[in-house]
Amino acid sequence: MQTTFKDLNLSAQLLNAVEDLGFVHPTPIQEQTFSVVRSGKDVVGIAQTGTGKTFAYMMPLITDLKYSTEKHPKILVLVPTRELVLQVVEEIEKLAKYITLRVEGVYGGTNINTQKRAIAQGTDIIVATPGRVYDLALSKALNFKNIQKLVIDEVDVMLDLGFRFQLLNIFDILPVRRQNIMFSATMTEDVDALITDFFKSPEKVSVALSGTPLDNISQQCYDVPNFFTKVNLLNHFLRDKETYTKVLVFAGFKRTADLLFNSLDESFAEEICLIHSNKTQNYRIRSIRQFDEGKNRILVATDVMARGLDFDGVSHVINFDTPNFPENYMHRIGRTGRAEKEGQSILFSTAKELEDKTAIEELMNYEIPKVALPEEVEISEILTEDERPREDREGSKNRTSLEYVPGPAFHEKSEKNSQTNQGGSYRREIAKKYKKPKTRGDKNYNKHNKKKK
Ligand code: AMP
User: Fold this and answer.
1) Are 404 and 431 in contact (CB under 8 A)?
2) Domain of 202?
3) Atom 8, ligand 1: which residue's CA is nearest?
């Protein structure tokens, strides 16, 4: 039998509030999180927006929040954006319809004095973006001494946007004895590192996608020796424009996404766009629009940036690298095969990534059919800076890991047979782009636009 809110032992006030909203059954993340949050342990929840995660952490927190006239807040909720501050405050207000509870939202880009005056009235819950709440604390407008619960929502987005430092600053001025609750839609290396460094043996609750992929997504995988052979294989697929009509290419890191984009740009300049969090908001919006509308056939994206996006009719998801966290693979392939349409997912793995592939297969309880590399795809012997043995890299400490540095294998090979030097053009292209100081601007985008005029 499906659980109802009554089964959660909600107070009459909370129960009435959810009933007023017309909610009958708690969502899976709400059901799973309730008692864990109440236990007082650190909690890591893996859930996307839309799963009811705000109520999932707020229902148990409010259940245990006692009425108070104390000035200083007891609960701090950190979120990455102003929009989310407003949304979370609104959700809390709905839930607290029959409870006397004070909630305040604070975010940057608006008058800090208005926010100071609001806080001075006293508050129980503060919902905030990290930068502004830190400023308020430093200026003594806000006192954290009573904070018992810290919630960090959408932590993957927060870290991807570069807020790690701000989070650490806030941790430093919070009471040590507190409960940490974190929600993230995807697991990333950064999220994992934050949990390891700051959480005390957290309980993990997850509605991270069941491991069962949709029937209408067919999957394949390729063992590929290195980055540039992956580029060659991808090039090989993308040349078939009739089959590969709308292709979402996932790269785990911004630097891989950049390097890949630059490598493909040579062959598919008019057809490719890119999205990751170092790109400006305008650049990202344009990339999304161009891909969605079919003006660009190929979108290269990082996991965090692409996860909230819902594109119609993606023909292929290419996993250019094998995600470390198996849930991310489920997120990625779910971008295709939507709305009853057939979709295809292709996974590339180097020898180093095979362990991650096994983890994915275990999660799905399904062995992804392996396909041999097509003969016409050249095996590149060129290695990226990241792929070269460490001692080899010593001489090039000052270079970015993006910059391709020809290793001994490259010279030998090019002397022996310069005609099969399939990576040389990428090398030139990359050298051209990265020799100059790297900027965060829209260089590539501008270049594209110029070309298109
Ligand atoms: P969230 O994942 O927190 O962004 O929530 C997504 C939406 O689902 C919000 O509009 C909530 O008000 C709504 N919601 C939350 N819990 C439930 C529930 N148990 N049943 C139906 N809708 C819900």
Assistant:
1) yes
2) 5-206
3) 52
